[in-house]
Amino acid sequence: MKEKAVITAAITGGIHTPSMSPFLPVTPRQIVEEAVASYEAGAAVAHIHVRDPETGRPTPDVNLIKEVVTGIKRRCDMIVCITTGGGLGMTAEQRLIPVSAFKPELASFNAGSLNFALFHALDKFKEFKFDWEAQYLGMTEDFIFPNTFKSMREFTAIFKDSGTKPEFEVYDSGMINNVAFLIERGYVKKPVYIQFVMGILGGITATPENLQFLVDYAKRLIGEFEFSVCVAGRAQFPLCTHSLLLGGNCRVGLEDNLYLEKGLMAGSNADQVKKIVRIARELGVEPATAREARKILGLKGIDKVNF
After folding, report:
1. Which of 73, 136, 138, 190 is the most exposed place for a label (fewest CB within 10 A)?
2. By three-state DSSP, how is residue 193 classified?
C-alpha cells in the first residue's frame, strides 16, 4: 500500500437512468453540487458526464459540459476528468469534442471495443419516468461500444494536442495489450494511468482474483504504471478496498453503484466518498489532495485547462 491514494467520484455517468434512483444528479447545477461535496469529502477527481436537464438522458451537449466544468473550477481546485465515453450510441467525433474544446487535465480513454450491455437491468426495473429509458437499456442487447485501433490512434493525437492525460479504461485483459501497443508505437508515453473497469456485462467480472490478474498482467506488459479501480454494482467497495491493498487508487460514485450498502441507497456521491475515505484511513491510507493527485498522476495543472 502507499500513503496517499487518489479517490475519484464518478458523479452521474451514462449508465443509470433517472428512474433507478431519486438521488442521481441530472442538471448541471446538481452535478456541480455533487462534485464539490465529493471534493469536500475527500475526492481529488470528478469524472464528468452530462445529461439533458429535462429528461436525464445522457447528452454530448458541449454547453452543458462547459457549465459543469466551469462551475466546479469556480468553487474548488478539483481535477476534472471529462468522459470520452459519453452516452451509448454517441459518435467518436461527439465523444472527442470536449477534449479539444476544454483541454482538461484528465479525460477517459476507452482502451478497446466491447459488448457494453445494460439490457438485463430491464429484469429489475419495469416502470420508467421517461420513454427513452427502457429503449436506451434494451438496445444494448445488440450493441457494441466501438473503440477501434484507428479511433484510438486518432484519440491519442487529440489528447496530445490538448495536453490531456489519458485515463485508460480497461474492461478486460485484452485491452491491456491495446495500451501496450499504443505505447510501443509511440502514440502515448509512460507512465500511463489505467483504470480497471470491472463488473460490466461484456467485460471482466468483479472478483479479487481478476483484479490481481489484471494488475500483474499489466505489470508484465507495461512495467510501472499508476492504476485505479471502478466497479459496477455491489462489489464496488470490496474491490476498491482491494485496489488500495494493492497500492492502487479507486473510484466510487453514482455512475457505478447506486447503493451505500445492501438495501440502502446512497443519498449522494459524497456519501460513497466518505465511506471509502473511512475504509482507506482504517488501512493507513490518506486520500490525496487535488494538488497531490496532480503530482501522482503527472498532470499539467489546472492553470493549463481551457475552461
Report:
1. 190
2. strand
